[in-house]
Amino acid sequence: MAQEEVHISSLVVHVKPEYLEEVKAQILEMPNTEIPGDSPEGKVIVVLETENQGYVTDTIDKINNLEHVLITFLVYHQIEHFDSQSEDDS
């Protein structure tokens, strides 16, 4: 039985406050990203749900390299393993 995994990560992105909406739009254009919250001071919470860890690090790099992003922090990373065949299929 094959095992698959999902990586759930959360990031805090610090943005120049005057560019908050612009940067949020750029982040949301990236696959598998959600923004559940932000603050007027330029802090953005980003949640990623991906199939591998490489995507997480690549996305952090992409976000960190956006213009007007000051820094990006990984604050949570969990790996969930599950069988690709559900119990109903057995």
TrEMBL record:
It comes from the Bacteria. InterPro entries: Chaperone_NapD_NO3_reduct (IPR005623). Keywords: Chaperone, Cytoplasm. GO terms for biological process: negative regulation of protein transport. GO terms for molecular function: signal sequence binding. GO terms for cellular component: cytoplasm. It is found in: Cytoplasm. It holds the Pfam family NapD. Chaperone for NapA, the catalytic subunit of the periplasmic nitrate reductase. It binds directly and specifically to the twin-arginine signal peptide of NapA, preventing premature interaction with the Tat translocase and premature export. Interacts with the cytoplasmic NapA precursor. Belongs to the NapD family. This is Chaperone NapD. It comes from Photobacterium indicum. The gene is napD.
